[in-house]
Batch of 3 targets.
Target 1
Amino acid sequence: MPIWGWPMTEILFFFEVVLAGLLAGTMYSLVALGFVLIYKASATFNFAQGAMVFFAVLSFVGFMELGLPFVLAFLVTILLMIAVGYATERLVIEPLTGQSEDTMLMATIGLAFVLQGLAQAVWGVEVRRLDLGIPDFPIPWLADNLGIFVSALDVTAGVVAGVLIIVLSLLFRFTKMGLGLRAVADDPGAAASIGIPLKNIMLLVWSTAGIVALVTGMMWGARAGVQFALVDLALKALPVLIIGGFSSIPGAIVGGLIIGVVEKTLEVYVGPYFGGGIEGWAPYVLAILFLLWRPEGLFGEKIIRRV
Amino acid sequence: MTDKPVFMTYSRSDVTNFAVLMILAFAVVPFTIETDYWYSSILIPWLCLALAAIGQQFVMGYAGQLALGAAGFMAAGAFACYNIELRIPWMPFPLSLLFSGIIAAAFGVLFGLPSLRVRGIYLMVATLASQFFIIWMIDKFGWFKNYDTSGIITAQDIMIFGVPFTSPMQMYLVVAVVVTILTILAVNMTRGSVGRNWMAVRDMDIAAESMGISLLRAKLQAFALSAFYCGVAGALFAFTYLKSLEPVAFDIKLSFSILFMVILGGLGTINGAFVGAAFILLFPVVLNTAGNAWFHGTIDATIISAIEQVVFGALIILFLIYEPLGMAKLWENTKQRLLDRRPVGEARPNKKPKTG
């Protein structure tokens, strides 16, 4: 049954490509979510989010190797990420309060190198496997009945991303902490002067970003192995943020999905003409084109600069 | 970012320093250092990387645009040089270098275009695109590599009007001459109107624009010159240090290294490029030697490189907090303390800033 001259198998294949893109996109969204959290609270672009993902999941796997059971390793890693958040806040963010955005960005690049170096120095550099007990092959029921090949791991990643986003959005929107957080993001000085505990808020945000990093790392790690390449993969969250807008949680999600789909479809349908490999740069070029059209991103607040 | 006197002239000490450096570089070094190791593993890569760092200084330290694609432009320069030498065999090496720089500059302008609309992290993403795109392009289109399938291409010998420059010392001289010329140009450019415009744009672009400085011109100029310097540096790096051409050598790690050189060396100084390059190049050597001496080879090389990353990252943070102007400024301060034992920053009575 061809549609517009396309045979049915081609159409199914196209849907499969799009679906694979969407699911890969949720992975990018998860990384982007960590960036957005910190950007929302402190207008700091945290370049180290990718390194935090690597640091968290490598530590998690390391603790498991030391013989800790899954749940305990998870909890210990969460404590570790809170400690990292605390140290970051006290040693990097606080001394640089009030500096320009570019300075903060450079400082977080430094932080990224500290974290990825520390993780490798402590746990070693070899590639680890991470088995979450979720199979990474097509779900048989879907494959048999609909002819669509989707792995259970991808679906889990999608669900986890969805839950995280809903929980975080609700926290931001309806809790006192979330209100304080938005106040701090708006004007740290004014927020502090009316008694909002600036340090606690920042600590909370960095810890949450650390936990998001751990979850992201576990998803990525189960898919691609726990290895240094995770840091480079996390760089792809940058174009995601540009498309979605830096200060918007829904933006991170939609941006991630767009990048995932565009990247996959381009690679499958356009890539062969160039010998493949275009997914390495296509997201960045897409981001540039997007910048020309809408610099603040799809969901971001309009950027207003004053002299 | 910097507070320098508005009127900068060459003082007598600048001229003496320059003369001493030139004598060291061209009269003392070639006659005293005989081991090839020093030329091919320390001096040549140091000068090449310092040149690339000057390029990064233009765009980041002077024009204040956060760019992260220096290695991409270096790759463009290196492969342009290879192709020029390959296809026009009679072309003398200095001319090949010049054209490689110009080709890299064209890429610089192209990928600098987004800087007209965006800044900060946005611009960094745009320049990352250049990094990934240029490397991919060289990798995928066989023409750039002369359809070589091995992945590593041997660089041609350096010939200048029929005279070969192939020994490490001769190559050092070629690099030193090129770097000297480009550094003098860079110093003058950054002190002149070009550099002033860049700094005005860096310090407050809207104000600069309302004073009649064309942002378009200043920014694209910065990107073009930056890419030119990186392109020449990349060609020298490939022909005199690596002696081979492979896109992998110019990956994002090198871009980060060059970024670190500029931040640690001191943003907005040409000296800083040299100091930063020396530090980033030499620190791993020192760390490796120390690691081997203390642990007698029991400590893994990968662990040492991990420690290196921690140290670089921590230094970046420390310098941003305590001395944003980097090692060049640190050195300046120490010198001043030792020389006149006066608190830094206090005006010296015999050197009042000129007025009018």
Target 2
Amino acid sequence: MDTPPALYAEDPAWADVVPIPQYEGVSPLAPIFYTPEYKDATDYFRGILKTGETSERVLELTERIIRMNPAHYTAWQYRYKTLLALGSNLEDELRLMDMYCIKYLKTYQVWHHRRLLVTLLLPAPSTSPSPSPSSNPNPTHLQTSNPTLALLQLQEELDFISRCLSADTKNYHTWSYRQWLLSYFNHPRLWRGEVKWVERLITEDVRNNSAWHHRFFVVFASGHGEKGEDAVREEIAYAKQKISLAPNNASVWNYLRGVLDHTHMPYSTLKSFVEPYTVEQEGRSEDVVDLEDPLPSAGAELPCALAIEFLADVHEQEGGVEAVRKAVELWKSLANEYDTIRKKYWEYRIREALATQQ
Amino acid sequence: MSIYRPTPTDSFPTDTSVLQGETEETLSKHIPSPEYPAQPLNRNAHLQWLVRNMVQGFPTRYTSQDASQPWLMFWTLQSLSTLQAGLDSGNKQKAIDTIMSWQYPEGGFGGGPGQAPHLLATYASVCALANVGRPGPGGGWDEIDREKMYKFFLSVKQADGSFTVMRHGEVDVRGIYCLLVVATLLDLLTPELVAGTPAFLASCQTYEGGFSSSSQPYFSSGTLLSSPRPPLGEAHGGYTFCALASWVLIKSFQPPPYGVDIDVKRLLRWLVMMQGSEIELGGFKGRTNKLVDGCYSWWVGGAFALLEMLGMPAARTEAPTAHSDTDDEWDDVDGQSYPLRPSVVQYSTVPDTLFNRKALQEYVLYAGQHPTGGLRDKPPKTSDAYHTLGCLSGLASAQHHVTPSTRRREEITLLWESNTECAFTEQRKSAFIDALAWVEEEGASKYVGSSADRLNAMHPVFNLTMTHTDTMMGHFYQQTVPPRLMRRNV
């Protein structure tokens, strides 16, 4: 803050409020040493909570507390209540939050407050199936009635989220807020651009698991992106290509497994693709460009433990004595050489596979 | 240069791999060497650090946790209990009085005096009271307004079986875990309260196998659709622990089938994949391709025990082939055997964990301990209250094997008295028995250093000691809990 903050205790405009100290009649264990400004503001906040006042000055007070401690959820809750009581301009509040979201990226409350505002500002989705309206007071007078305008506002909100993500590419709150926005408003036009958008983030950092999760969310989990067999083939081809770039990347292997599990495809469909990743580079014959099954890049460090694991799963799914024997050999190589930290797990897989066979 | 292999980058660096590489370089400096011998648990430094926070208070930077005062209290008290220490009766009373000042007049606990009731604050307050409270006037336990608390719980229930953490608050599985723990401890579980919750939890499991923070419901003319119900956010260690522990608690109250299930096999794979490699000292990560962090020692390391309640058998090292291997490996660490605990030598005949418990202990001891007391995320960070408990609980879960015991179950059942008239007495009984059936398996403990590093075993669901859990639940259910056999002295 630029100027030294005046204490509410010294402000005549607040003389009518009785400040309430935090602990009365209790000598607390494990207290926090507050600054005088924080103590002053929260003493007056407790005074306000007691009288139940909702006014402009309460908005100013809660903002001051939030700036000193953005995790003060009661200040947020009371601020929300006050905004509603005063019929405040929620657009203005949202613009104020633009600044706070970036400044306090890691607090739950800034993102949740934003969600409450957006829920009020934009019309509730009318398409069926519709999200639960249970916690939405739906004051229709606040909302945009023009659907085109609403779409533009939603697009603006997505752009804002994109800017936040470029500052912190794996922020959990930001990602889940984006996923909420998409699925809650469920606007067909909004879904349309998402795969292209997230593709850029994956290109920037192929190991960004949040981006991979988002891709899965859009294409499969949301129920709005899947477009039949072609889409699935496309996703598998995309994952293969990213594996060939840098095979030792758990995010893309998890994605690939996710796609196969979601669509009930047997892992064996990828057997010939996976095999070159399970052996050392030198052992390979000269590269033949295979668009279907791209080979590991020249810089790949092989054999890749994730590929060995995958191949073992292929064998296990095949079943039969010979296939399980092959799987066991692969698991042993993980336990003893390529992924020794998970030795106990690989031994467990061996025991389970052998037990199933008996 | 480390003797361990860095995570392969395939000659294709990105922001993630660069940060990972830097972290591995820092961490590998903490791998014991002749120059820097292995550190034991610095019990005294941690105790002093905890007591200083408790008695003198927390420095100004903790203002960011002013709305989490119950957490500061719980993390500190529970860390002391893990370290087998406790407060004197004067400070205990001060703690009780402080905690009770957070109870909200209309039910539940807030993050400080006058703060709105919140599920997380309620969990932390009640679990702090499990540590220091007692029955009777001034003891806290009987001053918890259970009736109003139950009303608060119902007031935040949502149509999809989830709960918001407070009025106008967000939905996430942390809140559900907190609510279910408190409801179980205080005998507040009802079919009404948890209706629809299993399906909500299951919907949070992602394609990776771990759980996300929440999911988006869809309704068709007022009816909740079973699909789509997409998880919001990627699989995450903290949420995964909370979802799994909630699943375990609900399982005992509302027996399956729920019409939905979780994929335990995929969950197990995700959990083991969260363990960092040798160069990261075997600490746990919270998400795929993120960095190891001491707090996940508990959220992820501690989650393995919960799988046993879902019928996944503990790993058993097969005697006698692996016998010598296992013991040699452990002896290498400190070059000594364990003369005081003969049972340890018989390691091959007892259950083992599916994660690398030796490596996790090493992470906490070598990277997690701050030289001046308290524990941390990773070096060179400073220690804090949250990471201190996360590291200590994780270390405890790597030292001991805690498992549901049939014998313990029988003992509790034998003493059970039907003392309420309600429509769900059988579920209530099974919730009680399931919660108290966990035992620390005799002779299954193992230490990287020596048994001087022993911590108390934690209840895998509540993160309380077994004794505190027994006493509190016995009181609120008005049941006699059979005493636990004294552990053989170490």
Target 3
Amino acid sequence: MKVIKTVKLFIGGEFPRTESGRSYSFNKSGTDEQYARLCQASRKDFRNSVENSKKSQPGWASKTAFLRSQILYRMAEMTEGKRVEFVDLFKNALGKSDSEANKMVDEAIDTFVYYSGFCDKYQQVMGAVNPVSGPFHNFTTPEATGVVTLIEADEFNFARLVDNICAILVGGNSVVTILGKGCPAVLAPLAEVFKTSDLPGGVVNLLTGDLDEIKGFIGNHMEVRAISFQNERTDVYHELRIASIDNMKRMIPRREKERSLDLILDFVEAKTVWHPIGV
Amino acid sequence: MTKKKATKKKVTKSTAKKKKTSKKKTTRTTSTHKLKPGMVFEYDPAPESSAVVSIKKKYELFIDGAWVAPESGKYLNNENPATEESLGKFAIGNEKDIDKAVKAARKAYEGEWGKMSGKDRGKYLFRIARILQERAREFAVLETLDGGKPIKESRDVDIPLAAAHFFYNAGWADKLEYVYPGKDVKSIGVCGQIIPWNFPLLMAAWKIAPALACGNTVVLKPAEQTPLTALLLAEVCQEAGLPKGVVNIVTGEGPTGAALVDHKDVNKVAFTGSTDIGKLIAKNIGHTNKKLTLELGGKSANIIFADAAIDQAIEGIINGIYFNQGHVCCAGSRLLVEESVHDIVVKKLKKRMSSLRVGDPMDKNTDIGAINHKEQLVKIKEMVAQAKKGGADFHQADVKVPRKGYYHAPCFFDNCSTSDMIVRDEVFGPVLSIMTFRTPEEAIVKANDTQYGLAAGIWSEKGSKVHQVAGGLKAGVIWANTYNKFDPTSPFGGYKESGFGREGGRHGLLPYLEVK
């Protein structure tokens, strides 16, 4: 008899069940047949994730760009190592063919590799030494925004999910991800990728659950500095856009492109430093 | 700026002690009187002439390249805060006026301006920059009359920088493919821009120049306290032959701004002003997909380490908080002094403050002019009165202040604690709060202990420490061993609740472009 894996949450580098003790059934695409039981994350799970995210963010941002780059590359390696598991999931849960499922993994791996290479370059591409009119050394560098909440699309696209997470990680931010309805079971293998890539615990948190339940606690959370809203629901986008004004969260609307510098820059702040030149 | 420092130094020596005004005449007739030790030199008035400007009785709205009367038929009185004298009336634009202006901007965007080459757009902006330079005196005098800032600041800072912003951005207009490496960019459309009263022309330049360089058209609402230089800028646009509708200027109060923000055909809103209003605007457009940049309030820390060049740091503190009467969003309003040098810093600061000249903004020797308008003076006084009850040590410079007009002598609160209202809330006036720290780590924690994140100052002769602290501060602009420096090539803007987006430099173009 087959042992069925329970999909738990990924918070602070650990795999807890939801504190609420609730779960829901994730069925195979287009059927009533259960693929796995998933945790239904609560408000407290979200808050615990933000807390962990906040604690781990400065350490992640202060790692050298080269090290961040290597850790993202490691994610590509670990995804390759778990290819069979991902393919199995996409075939069984989503009804993909073998080649389709493999292609999904290929694209996700390529996305990890793409962003890995940007960790030590976006600063040079979008930083600046500014020629001010006076004897000053003046330069602008990008810095992490802080804790970002990513609200994933309901339509599942593995490479896009990886893209959305990496665009946040590259700049030294940490992320709390609310997975979409399409394939929340991806949490299990994906969390293991992050867990085994030398990424500090808490930098990536993955939650499954009901967006309608959690959405009310995201916009007004004062430690969340930005929201990447990749879900299709425009009503929730506008609701969060208004709710996020209290601490002036950066609200990043759904985008259609992938693997792009501007996606990284959505989650950085430009810091400009002046210093006089002279004796 | 250098000129300012030079004159200040002279004063430190000559007017260390006050109150001997009666000797003024004696000291001037140098041929017959000998100089005696301890004699005090008073500055004679050195007023700038206002003859270069003519204030109209009535100012209309600038829409679609023409001056038009407001639909409401309503006008508001404008006042010189230094003298409380009238500066004519200006029009109050309402929803209909805003609609006309947005339509004109849309027409220009879809038409001539939108189709124009970057090269030609740039040439118009270069023209505007040149005309601003040529009419600099006129603008400086008008700015000072309208807003009460010292003529030496409007003459040496506001106007030259405004012209420089147009000049800098002009050059970008035909080089937009270099803004975002590897990406194509395009303009956004009609921009609704709302600016504050503290740097009226400069803020107009910060808003209009990058928007136009990127190919957008604008509807600008100046602050109701200081509409005159923006309206004169409209004249400059006419003089430059700028196609009609590209720049529209609609004066008015809050409702005029709200109408602009709410207008359906505005693609992007840019606002500089208070955090409260910024949040209101953000809320108003929350249900839309309008783009938004906000440059809001601040409570910037100015950190003095024991190993700083203390005398330079004192000048930095003065410039940080008392520049433009403290009406500066990035003012260094929280002074953090390393404990071991606290006493000497405060002693020197008091001495330096006593030599500041507060008074007629039109006087070329004036350091601190008039508070921009009456309501702001009332607000500052209320906050000072409230802070006095809080237990911090209050000190106000013993300087003469004119009886007529709105003035507030520079002051500070010493031995504040991080929870004090005067430490947490933006005053937007010449009021400094002082706290101490022991280690760089503590300085960083205290500096970051605010919802704002606009700017910060660091004073230390140790380079590695400066860079460490600069890295730890959550602020968009860090001035190390200097303060309140601005340049069109240098991005400006804040973290956290100080807003989002940058103005100036290559980064300042991004909010006015869409990346394809």
